[in-house]
Write a structure and sequence with these properties.
The chain is built from twelve helices and 17 strands. The protein is of the alpha+beta class and 483 residues long. The strands form four sheets. It has a six-stranded antiparallel beta sheet, with no helix packed on it.
């Protein structure tokens, strides 16, 4: 869809709302954008608290939750100024700023991770990713590498690099935030502004009409029904299935390959059991009937029936926040399955391949203070939300063959009543009427002012972007045009 068509659709959809209401929606989204668990340099370099009421001529702006960068040249670099890492050791040192938007010092961001530049031929702004950890635009992965095609940016695109989210805004375009992005941010919008939308009619209607709010209400109703069910004597055992699922759903186990068979017992560490072990050649390994605990050394010759995807899911669900490092996944599997504890290290390659190729798993930045290199792993937001939707709708009567992750999620949900997840992707049980979070009155946001473009004096005037005046407001308000 072209920019013009998208603007027409957006204007038609929200034509009954004022310009201030639309700007208030953009402001509200900007205020709930995610940030790294550790402080990043850009929050200090371009903090909104440093802004004063003035007018800035800029091609565009890039705004995070508590910072704003004004684009005043045709190429902006994003990455990490490595010199910043030695500031503590040399506080008086002068730092060379090689990067315009510094997302350091966390090494999840490469030294030159990305660049936003204006394409003179197409007349559009583009994002090129160089860092090996990649990036997302509108919560979807984009191509990575110097030879990969750049991603065209429109006003309202949300960029995520290393867990730091920022919104790209052009003054000459209508800022369009896709419905997909609004749905993704809905948990934060609801918890921050409540169902009233901070008295902004557009924000209020967006929240009230969201799928997330409907699912939350259905989930709350289901929770209350489960509580009533627990206090109601059962007339027969057939009223609850073998998993204790109040929806009446039953997992129908199908005949699968050995690697896909799953246990129907608990999924917490040291609580696994298997009723049907793989057939083992007695000439090679001793036969053990119905091992009660596969973590015991005596069961070292019994290959677990769980697939690698199942064991990875178990490891992720065993953590309080639903994220775990690769090293801890290895440790979880070794601690709970003696077969792998006493095996060669080749199985770890299979674990890495499953993490990389299975769309149910995705990377997430480590928690603050967590030791070790690399990133954590979690259940992808899409898989997790799809499971919760089916759980609430009672559509888990049969799980297809090979759905190891979904089966483990259902076992966990049946036993513990929730699915853990990092704070950045929480979509599980919350109070529907969330309290509004107060923000400091000094938190500032820039506002685009609709004025006549001032073209630069250049031979490429027809293809060059125009710098437009932008007013820097002194407070944040999602109910009007000031930000």
């Amino acid at each position: 869809m072209s920019v013009t068509n998208a603007e027409q659709e957006f204007s038609g959809k929200y034509s009954s709302y004022t310009v201030q209401d639309r700007q208030g929606l953009v402001n509200a989204v900007t205020c709930v954008l995610g940030s790294s668990s550790e402080p990043v340099a850009v929050s200090t370099d371009y903090s909104n608290n440093l802004s004063i009421a003035r007018e800035v001529n800029a091609y565009a702006k890039i705004a995070g939750r508590d910072w704003t960068y004004y684009v005043q040249k045709l190429e902006v670099t994003i990455g990490r100024n490595t010199d910043s890492l030695s500031l503590n050791a040399h506080p008086d040192a002068v730092v060379q700023k090689n990067i315009d938007i510094d997302l350091g010092p966390a090494k999840i961001v490469s030294r030159k991770h990305a660049a936003i530049r204006f394409n003179l031929e197409s007349g559009s702004w583009e994002l090129q990713i160089f860092g090996r950890n990649g990036a997302k635009v509108n919560f979807r992965r984009i191509p990575t590498g110097p030879d990969s095609p750049p991603t065209v940016l429109q006003s309202g695109c949300i960029i995520d690099i290393g867990g730091v989210q920022m919104i790209f805004i052009l003054p000459e375009q209508e800022t369009i935030i896709p419905d997909y992005c609004l749905n993704h941010l809905m948990p934060k919008l609801l918890s921050t502004y409540g169902t009233n939308g901070n008295n902004n009619p557009l924000l209020r209607n967006v929240i009230e009409g969201s799928t997330y709010l409907r699912e939350q209400r259905l989930q709350e109703e289901a929770r209350l029904q489960r509580l009533d069910h627990l206090h109601t004597p059962l007339s027969s055992s057939s009223e609850v299935n073998a998993l204790g699922d109040p929806h009446g759903d039953t997992i129908m186990m199908e005949d699968e390959d050995d690697d896909e068979n799953e246990t129907r017992e608990g999924i917490r560490p040291n609580t696994y059991s298997a009723s049907n072990s793989n057939v083992i050649n007695n000439n090679i390994m001793p036969h053990i009937d119905n091992p009660s605990d596969l973590s015991l050394d005596e069961n070292r010759y019994v290959k677990p029936p769980q697939s690698y995807a199942s064991m990875i899911t178990q490891a992720i669900l065993s953590t309080p926040d639903g994220s775990i490092s690769l090293a801890d996944i290895y440790k979880f599997i070794s601690d709970n399955y003696s077969f792998y504890r006493f095996s060669q290290m080749a199985w770890q390659n299979s674990v890495r391949h499953n993490l990389s190729l299975n769309k149910a798993f995705e990377k997430v930045p480590k928690r603050a203070g967590q030791q070790g290199k690399g990133m954590n792993w979690k259940i992808s937001d899409e898989i997790r939300q799809d499971f919760l939707n089916k759980w609430n709708a009672g559509k888990l009567s049969k799980i297809r063959r090979g759905a190891s992750v979904t089966r483990q999620l259902q076992l966990h949900m049946s036993k513990f009543g929730e699915i853990p997840a990092p704070e950045s992707s929480l979509t599980a049980t919350r109070e529907i009427k969330a309290q509004k979070v107060k923000r400091p009155s000094q938190n500032t946001r820039p506002v685009l002012q609709e004025t006549t473009p001032q073209l630069q004096e250049t031979q490429l005037t027809s293809q060059m972007p125009s710098k437009m005046p932008m007013n820097i407001a002194t407070n944040a308000n999602v109910n009007n045009g000031s930000l």
